[in-house]
């Protein structure tokens, strides 16, 4: 987009009800940074209250309409992401301003490649707007989302402010307190003066431009009888702490020295020890690190408030008192939210009678939830534990499951990508991650394909497996658990959403979908899966062929809309310079089963070999694939199936997907472009 232009989101995507704005820049010195902020404005161009101003100290809207997601690694450094649920925005909100500001006298002219991109709920990029005339301004409005009738539109603004975040926020009606030590502005200086980044600041009062008439004019200095203090940058917490990308060199003499840990794992000798230690470690960190505790309990209906956690609590239950592994209590506005916690480690299964007893206790005592925690990954429509609910009770208790893999994912996302505000909290999360990922903790996640794995593989090889065999359904469920865990693992490393794609008609029962996959497994001996990675050029496909013991990871990328086929082929080969030589590349052509194909090693010197012999044949895209032998055992050992799938997915992403161009937004038709003018 160009400065001042606008476009309707509905013309770009059918999934524009939720969008993610990404603000990015590059610092030539490597130490430049900026803070993003969002303002919700009513029809008068002002915030309703200071609560409509979202920045690093107020990152989430109570209604979920705005959430500052923090920084995530990108190809050129980092980008700040903001999630908008436009369906949840209050009807009285007319515009949403997306801005960024610098501090300590720094200006945006010191940064390069300033850009904002917008992606829809499916992760597809819709638009981008680059700002190349930032000059010395210390705050910039990158763009704004605004209503036109029943639809949302985006305008590329690129408007600058000389007086930073405080000046920008004040002009939109936010009440910014001065710090106690704020310096006086020089005598006779004007109040917050806004400048357009395209031209020097005029001496006379600026007039709003036609394309930027939605940006309010600055307050005239003449309205004030005497000079006032320049509004300071709002009081904030310290910059968020994340894990360093390069670990510090150890001071130990040699590798045999063991670093002292806050949560040691060497003394864990039994499953009971592991369960007790894991529960206490997790619950204590949840109570001490509010960001982390909130992450884990909010999806279960817990309010945002003061959290306290307890272990080995004795509760009456008939003749035999029960002792749940833990209790979580959250206080808000004088009300308590309580959840009982039952924990399992290693391959231990949850016991239905235990969970049923805790559900009954919670119902009698008015508690809100029972949370089970184990290495199993819960599947949609397939509860890990079946419990009976007494419909006569007025008080309903929610039964929720949390996997250790999800706990690890949330901790990784916070400490490695989004950061926490306190150094002590960051250290606690680092220690928690070390504990969870240690082999002796028992919190490694899903690690066993189950008792049906070997018989099903043998039945496929012997061609004795028949449709309807219940063991195939067990294998399909284990496969789905494995894929969900790989999504959590990869997402935690990348700081991006990685979700399994479930190909089924809307409203289809999950069990019916798994039954269909089980029948298909009997026919072709394959376990398929698809992973949608935020920002990737296509869906990552995984296929485990149990007949050939081969794993295939692949991605299909569409052909560019413009240019020549030979140019496409050469560009693709250049992008894959660091990819494995055994990468298979297949050209996809319209109306045919397949086009030319070959390994990257063979195609590097002759990219033209990727093109069909018939010049009239239309190329629709390219399929990139890696093949790998898969493990035979059902567990997570070095030779195991689970380890081989995890390694294959991570290898394909790190050696292939990261080198490909990000998806480009669909080009609007001439009719759609005319309607947005």
What keywords describe this structure?
13 helices; disordered C terminus; 7-stranded antiparallel sheet; globular; 677 residues; alpha+beta
Short summary of the structure?
With 677 residues, this protein is of the alpha+beta class. The chain has 13 helices and 24 strands. Strands 1, 3, 4, 7, 10, 11 and 12 form a seven-stranded antiparallel β-sheet that branches. It has a seven-stranded antiparallel β-sheet with strand order 18-19-20-21-24-22-23. A five-stranded antiparallel β-sheet has the order 5-6-2-8-9, with no helix packed on it.
Give a structural overview.
This protein is of the alpha+beta class and 677 residues long. It contains 13 helices and 24 strands. It has helices at 164-171, 271-288, 290-297, 352-365, 404-418, 423-437, 453-462, 470-494, 510-524, 565-575, 600-603, 641-655, 670-675, and strands at residues 6-8, 18-26, 35-41, 53-54, 66-74, 77-85, 95-101, 112-120, 125-131, 139-148, 151-161, 194-196, 306-311, 326-332, 335-343, 369-374, 398-403, 498-500, 526-533, 540-545, 550-558, 584-589, 597-599, 619-629. Strands 1, 3, 4, 7, 10, 11 and 12 form a seven-stranded antiparallel β-sheet that branches. Strands 18-19-20-21-24-22-23 form a seven-stranded antiparallel β-sheet. A five-stranded antiparallel β-sheet has the order 5-6-2-8-9, with no helix packed on it. The longest helix is centred in the C-terminal third of the chain and has 25 residues, at 470-494. The protein starts with 5 loop residues before the first strand and ends with a helix. Mean pLDDT is 82; it is low at 178-238 and 665-677.
């Amino acid at each position: 987009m160009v400065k001042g232009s606008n476009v309707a989101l509905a013309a770009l995507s059918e999934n524009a009800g939720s969008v993610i704005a990404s603000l990015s820049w590059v610092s030539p010195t490597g130490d430049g940074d900026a803070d993003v902020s969002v303002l919700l404005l009513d029809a008068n161009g002002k915030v309703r209250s200071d609560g409509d101003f979202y920045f690093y100290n107020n990152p989430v809207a109570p209604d979920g309409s705005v959430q500052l997601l923090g920084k995530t690694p990108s190809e050129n450094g980092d980008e700040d992401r903001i999630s908008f649920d436009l369906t949840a925005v209050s009807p009285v909100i007319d515009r949403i301003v997306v801005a960024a500001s610098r501090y300590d006298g720094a200006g945006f002219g010191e940064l390069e490649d300033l850009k904002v991109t917008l992606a829809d709920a499916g992760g597809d990029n819709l638009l981008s707007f680059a700002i190349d005339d930032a000059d010395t301004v210390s705050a910039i409005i990158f763009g704004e989302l605004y209503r036109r009738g029943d639809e949302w539109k985006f305008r590329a603004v690129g408007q600058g402010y000389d007086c930073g975040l405080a000046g920008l926020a004040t002009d939109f009606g936010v009440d910014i307190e001065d710090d106690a030590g704020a310096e006086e502005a020089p005598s006779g200086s004007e109040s917050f003066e806004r400048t357009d980044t395209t031209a020097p600041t005029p001496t006379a009062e600026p007039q709003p431009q036609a394309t930027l008439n939605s940006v309010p004019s600055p307050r005239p200095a003449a309205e004030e009888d005497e000079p006032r203090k320049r509004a300071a940058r709002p009081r904030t917490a310290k910059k968020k702490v994340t894990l360093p990308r390069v670990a510090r060199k150890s001071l130990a003499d040699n590798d045999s020295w063991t670093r002292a840990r806050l949560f040691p794992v060497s003394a864990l000798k039994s499953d009971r020890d592991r369960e007790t230690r894991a529960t206490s470690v997790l619950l204590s960190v949840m109570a001490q690190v509010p960001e982390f505790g909130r992450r884990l309990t909010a999806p279960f209906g817990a309010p945002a408030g003061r959290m306290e956690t307890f272990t080995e609590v004795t509760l009456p239950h008939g003749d035999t008192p029960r002792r749940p592994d833990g209790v979580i209590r959250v206080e808000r506005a004088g009300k308590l939210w309580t959840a009982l916690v039952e924990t399992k480690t290693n391959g231990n299964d949850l016991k239905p009678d235990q969970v049923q007893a805790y559900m009954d206790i919670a119902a009698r005592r008015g508690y809100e939830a029972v949370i089970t925690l184990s290495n199993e990954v819960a599947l949609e429509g397939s509860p890990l534990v079946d419990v009976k609910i007494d419909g006569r009770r007025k008080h309903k208790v929610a039964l929720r499951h949390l996997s250790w893999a999800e706990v690890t994912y949330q901790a990784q996302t916070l400490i490695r990508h989004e950061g926490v505000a306190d150094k002590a909290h960051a250290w606690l999360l680092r220690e928690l991650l070390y504990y969870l990922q240690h082999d002796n903790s028992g919190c490694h996640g899903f690690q066993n394909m189950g008792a049906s794995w070997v018989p099903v593989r043998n039945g496929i090889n012997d061609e004795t497996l028949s449709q309807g065999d219940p063991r195939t359904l067990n294998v399909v469920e284990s496969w789905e658990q494995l894929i969900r865990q790989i999504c959590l693992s990869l997402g935690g490393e990348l700081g991006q959403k990685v979700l399994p794609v479930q190909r089924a008609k809307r409203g289809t029962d999950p069990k019916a979908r798994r039954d269909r996959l089980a029948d298909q497994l009997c026919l072709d001996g394959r376990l398929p899966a698809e992973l949608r990675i935020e920002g990737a050029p296509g869906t990552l496909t995984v296929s485990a062929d149990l007949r050939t013991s081969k794993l295939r990871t692949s991605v299909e990328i569409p052909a560019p809309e413009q240019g020549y086929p030979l140019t496409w082929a050469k560009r693709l080969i250049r992008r894959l310079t660091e990819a494995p030589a055994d990468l298979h590349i297949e050209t996809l052509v319209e109306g045919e089963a397949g086009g030319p194909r070959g390994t990257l090693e063979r195609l590097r010197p002759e990219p033209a070999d990727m093109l069909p012999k018939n010049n009239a044949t239309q190329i629709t895209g390219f399929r990139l694939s890696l093949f790998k032998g898969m493990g035979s055992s059902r567990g997570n050992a070095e030779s195991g199936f689970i380890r081989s799938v995890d390694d294959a997915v991570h290898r394909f992403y790190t050696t292939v997907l990261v080198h490909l161009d990000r998806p480009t937004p669909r080009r609007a038709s001439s009719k759609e472009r005319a309607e947005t003018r």
